[in-house]
Amino acid sequence: MESVQSEDTKNQPEEGFGVCAYVLIGFSYIIFIFTFPLSLLFCIKIVKEYERAVILRLGRILPGGAKGPGLFFILPCIDQIVSIDLRTITFDVPPQEILTKDSVTITVDAVCYFKIFDPVISVINVENAQFSTRLLAATTLRNILGTRTLQEILQDKEIIAQNMQETLDNTTDSWGIKVERVEVKDVRLPVNMQRAMATEAESTREARAKVIAAEGEQKASVALKQAADIIHQSPVALQLRYLQTLTNISAEKNSTIIFPIPIEMLKSFSKS
Questions:
Q1: From the CA atom positions of the chain, what is the Rg in Å?
Q2: Residues 125 and 208 in one domain
Q3: % pLDDT > 90, the chain
């Protein structure tokens, strides 16, 4: 029974204005009538297509929630109108100096896209929705990047941006704000760290080049050994290779005079 009663209490409409409030409202109408048409300059408000107006009368929001777009009438002295922009708003998160998990100090900045989906909540629940979202984005950026190493930050920018967007959206939902997108713009390293990383990359490239050169020499040695085995098994192949070498020499240096010596003569010298 107690739970049912509490739910009924929540569903009941709020109490209306008191006697003093109605007196002030009547007095406001009198001011409007006696100052007409000059009062129209202060009592007629225009809300644009992309805006919504939250009207507070004596500190209370008028029934029906946000108004707009269009032309509205407000009472002088007792009505306050707050215009809320419903378009997507973009702001840059100021560069933050962050100590990573592996104790490297870096400077990171980001960009955030958000929009207000509930004007009434954004006026009631938070003093300045845009400014609060900016501060929260900077704090969230530091908290998320502080739990990751430098290598993870450089490689997983998209994952970090997605985690940051989800964290911001969960917090700003009670403010009537929807965080649509977050992007990590730039990660700046200290000068000494940049030099160390450049030296490491250069050493890695040199080591890879030496490995490739060694593999090439190994393959060339294997091919040369196979060729030597084939020439050793076939003396005719050795003669053909000899003639091919003479042809290459004569083609490159035309002024050179070549006297070919039979291979059999060389063999006779080697035997002696």
A1: 42
A2: no
A3: 6
Residue 265 — pLDDT band, cuts 50, 70, 90?
low
pTM: 0.62
pLDDT tens digits, 121-134? 988 888 888 898 99
User: Are residues 63 and 57 in contact, defined by beta-carbon separation less than 8 angstroms?
Assistant: no
pLDDT in tens, 17-28: 667 767 777 777
User: Considering the domain boundaries, does residue 8 fall inside one?
Assistant: no
pLDDT score for 3 = 38
pLDDT score for 82: 86
Residues 96 and 185 in one domain: yes
Same domain, 148 and 74: no
Q: How far is CA 261 from CA 225, 246, 265, 272, in A?
A: 25, 11, 7, 17
Residues 102 and 170 in one domain: yes
C-alpha angle 200/206/209, rounded to 5°? 140
The sign of the CA dihedral 230, 235, 240, 241 is: positive
Q: Domain residues for 36?
A: 16-85
Indicate if 169 and 239 belong to the same structural domain.
Answer: no
> What is the number of structural domains in the chain?
4
Q: Which residues contact 256 (CB under 8 A, 6 or more apart)?
A: 249, 250
Q: Which long-range contacts link 263-266 to residues 24+ away (Cβ below 8 Å)?
A: 263/235, 263/238, 263/239
Q: H/E element holding 243? A: helix 235-252
Considering the domain architecture, whether residues 183 and 269 belong to the same structural domain is answered as: no
pLDDT computed for residue 10 by the predictor = 38
